[in-house]
Amino acid sequence: MANSFVLEQELLNAVDRRVERIVGHLLAAGPVTPFEAQQAHSLLVGSLHPVPCLADEEGIRSHISMSSCAAGDTSLAQGLPSSSSTSPDFNSLAKGWDVPPEQQEVSYWLSRVEGSIPADINGTFIRNGPGHLKRFGRSLVHPIDGDGLVAALTLTDGRAHIKAKYVKTKEFMEETEANRVLYYGMMGSSPGTLKHVRNLLPMLWGQAPHVRIKNPSNTNVLHWGNTLLSMWERGLPYRLDPCTLETIGVETLDGVLKESGCFSAHYRFDDTQNRMVSCALKLRMGKPCTLFFYEFNEDFKLVAEKKVNLDDFHYCHDFVLTKNYYVVYQTPMYSLDPAYLRKWLLGQLTTDKLMSFDAKRPSRMIVIPRDPQDTNIQFFDTEPTHIYHFVNGYDETGAQTDSIVFTACAFEKAFTMEFDQKTFLSNLTKARALLTEYRIDLISNTCTRRTVDRCACEFPSHNPHYDTRYSRYAYLMACDQPEGTRNAPFEDIVKADVEGRQRSVWNAGHGNAVCEPMFIPKDGATQEDEGWVICQVYNGRTHETQFVLLDAQNIAAGPVARLHLDHPLPYAFHGQWVPQIFMPSE
């Protein structure tokens, strides 16, 4: 074992020296962003994804300088200290990512319902997220690397049915057949130290290392035009059977996605034109990256497309849609430390540490006209933040007004993608996101912002029928604690009001964690908040999952129904409510 370790150390040192030369060459050519380094590395690995780190469970990892991969300077932190009279039990909440394999793929009618499901709620809540944090005995470094497990909760005639299946991607099936991990994850999970060393060996001779990145198809779902897709924004979507959730195969949407090779995890609707709008970001080495916007009709046929080349733009998880514009955010959350780049290319630094504030990077909103003939792209500087998710946006026009207004969950500058407390997708206990309203004045060429709500929040939703037009309400996965206490865990659903008049909160109780709340519009509604909110809730003390239904006009009253599952369901990322009843044949 000792001789094996010495050999591995010598090999890693040799590869390290070559990587150092590569990084030195890159830096000599001028300032290099982590994503430019990532793209340079892609020439070697044949992938536009970062090199993963070594698996931490191997024991060897601690001997190869991983301890020197310190987190970045936190002096810019603006987050609140994590403290409260009732201390969160993060260890129990962390189990919400961990469900035994035999309990993951299920299909059954729920037998325990507290309260009653409103008679006019008929449809299906479909959600996606990682099904595991461990694969064939190997732990993942971050949930973003987990294979997608799609679950569908169907509500019909006052009853509830749950089904869940893994997205059978090419990579998932190959690993299942081999009964071992074969692929790397975008956030740093790897097949293991020995395998990693072997994969890097070709670099000693200037050849491409054998590194393959997995498409986990784990981030969101989309039902549109009688088609159900599971998505991960760095790859092509997979088509699923909506009744059984069986995987049909990779989907290019009649070849529309062949040029970009990917499809965003988020989308918007334009009810005025009955369109679904999405985007894709194609990364390029040494050239501007291309941002694609796609607009599809109700039959999922492309009716409009826009391609925009942007310099120094390498991240797009979500966007704003208005009647006349698309808006995206250019985040400054990159690290330019040469030592970090060297360790990253070698595989000794995970992606979560790379995403951190860099004062030298731009922080700005980019406004792109929806009109295919209009090429006037505008840039607006704004206070540094990081934005995963927008809520909604609209155009505000008048005799002396021409503005774009939208809301987003904007993080503080201390943000990183650290898997905090083995529970949260970012360093939530150190850097919170606040619901923030942005106003871009197209006349004065300025961008201003204001805080809408005090709670730490993420994964917002709203009434989707209000996309592209003014809306008051956002439903937030939140930690609604007093100022100066704590940012986590997310145990509240907050109904925030941009007008500040009708704020409402429901608390799930100590030891529980909520997922993304989803708004269910009521048929024939005349008010924006007429409907319900459905949310997955995990109880860390009992290791149980339930779905709650809340009256959107009276969140504080608590659930009108609690739907208890017979098995724990892992935390979800994103989902969609659709009015269709999708049931497997009996």
Structure overview:
This protein is mainly beta and 586 residues long. Helices cover 13% and strands 33% of the residues. The chain contains seven helices and 33 strands. It has helices at 2-28, 34-45, 90-94, 170-178, 193-200, 338-346, 351-354; strands spanning 106-109, 112-115, 123-128, 134-135, 138-139, 149-156, 159-166, 220-224, 227-231, 238-240, 247-250, 267-270, 275-282, 289-296, 302-310, 320-321, 325-330, 364-369, 378-381, 387-397, 402-411, 433-441, 446-451, 456-461, 473-479, 492-497, 504-507, 512-514, 518-521, 531-539, 544-551, 559-564, 574-578. The strands form eight sheets. Strands 2, 28, 29, 30, 31 and 32 form a six-stranded antiparallel beta sheet that branches. Strands 1-7-6-3-33 form a five-stranded antiparallel beta sheet, with no helix packed on it. A four-stranded antiparallel beta sheet has the order 8-9-10-11, with no helix packed on it. Helix 1 (2-28) crosses helix 6. It is globular and about 65 Å long. It starts with a helix and ends in an 8-residue tail after the last strand.
